[in-house]
């Protein structure tokens, strides 16, 4: 484990990179003894600083939900980060690309909690019962550190979260089979990616159950009204200024945003 001073230095490096839009050196090289627990502690300190500056915790995100991404990151489970309210966008938004360093975009589902949910022992049906709505969502991911990154770099960097876009049709969790929600992702009129929500650990609520059990270990959980991004079911697409993005979820509607 790193010292408290090293944790603070690492968090400040992420905050500075975020503020100046210049990636910082890899934390895994600056602090070669960094472990997973250290990385989450750095993320905690980053979030505390952002909240102290006026942001509000709006929810959580889950990453590395696909087996391919876990293998690429040499992980055997997902990771998680925070969603802050100053990184929330709606369908139709014009999003400034200079808010990010090197943005990429993924297709996801967002779960809106209808009641508090805590672990341990949380299962998929607990998540479904506690969810009020499921909505189409896009996640913008961004790296505040140099690449290639170790998993501790990603976790410390708030699991690469950049922003969230929500839109389309709001549904209740049992209105449709949420395992089989499909979507296509178009960039400037060309379909670049497609996928189905069952690719998220077999069920898009599985990652959320995992998150609830992980949060229980630090005496935390999900709160009523919070947004939880369940993980991507497409590969990320690089975003550039001038891009127009359309994610079509079929019966669940579509999300359209542009980058300026």
TrEMBL record:
Fumarylacetoacetase-like C-terminal domain segment(s): 85-255
Entry GO MF terms: 2-oxo-hept-3-ene-1,7-dioate hydratase activity; 2-oxopent-4-enoate hydratase activity
InterPro entries xref list: Fumarylacetoacetase-like_C (IPR011234), Fumarylacetoacetase_C_sf (IPR036663), HpcG (IPR012690), Hydratase-Decarb/MhpD_sf (IPR050772)
UniProt keyword annotations, A-Z: Lyase
Xref: Gene3D superfamilies: Fumarylacetoacetase-like, C-terminal domain
Taxonomy, superkingdom: Bacteria
A single cellular component GO annotation: cytoplasm
NCBIfam families tied to this protein: HpaH
Record's protein name: 2-oxo-hepta-3-ene-1,7-dioate hydratase
Annotated source species: Methylobacterium aquaticum
């Amino acid at each position: 484990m790193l010292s408290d001073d090293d944790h603070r230095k690492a968090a400040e490096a992420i905050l500075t990179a975020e503020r100046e839009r210049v990636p910082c050196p890899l934390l895994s090289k600056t602090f070669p003894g960094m472990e997973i627990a250290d990385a989450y502690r750095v993320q905690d300190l980053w979030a505390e600083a952002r909240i102290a500056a006026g942001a509000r915790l709006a929810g959580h995100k889950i990453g590395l939900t696909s087996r391919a991404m876990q293998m690429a990151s040499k992980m055997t489970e997902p990771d998680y980060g925070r969603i802050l309210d100053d990184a929330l966008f709606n369908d139709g938004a014009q999003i400034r690309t200079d808010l990010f360093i090197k943005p990429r975009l993924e297709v996801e589902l967002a779960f809106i909690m209808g009641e508090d949910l805590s672990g341990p022992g949380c299962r998929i049906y607990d998540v479904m019962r506690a969810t009020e709505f499921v909505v189409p969502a896009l996640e913008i991911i961004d790296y505040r550190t140099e690449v290639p990154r170790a998993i501790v770099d990603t976790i410390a960097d708030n699991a690469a979260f950049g922003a969230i876009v929500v839109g389309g049709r709001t549904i209740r969790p049992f209105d449709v089979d949420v395992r089989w929600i499909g979507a296509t992702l178009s960039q400037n009129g060309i379909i670049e990616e497609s996928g189905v929500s069952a690719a998220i650990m077999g069920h898009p609520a599985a990652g959320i159950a995992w998150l609830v059990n992980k949060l229980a270990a630090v005496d935390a959980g999900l709160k009523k009204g919070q947004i939880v991004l369940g993980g991507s079911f497409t590969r990320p697409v690089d975003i550039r200024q001038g891009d127009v993005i359309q994610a079509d979820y079929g019966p669940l509607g579509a999300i359209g945003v542009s980058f300026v």
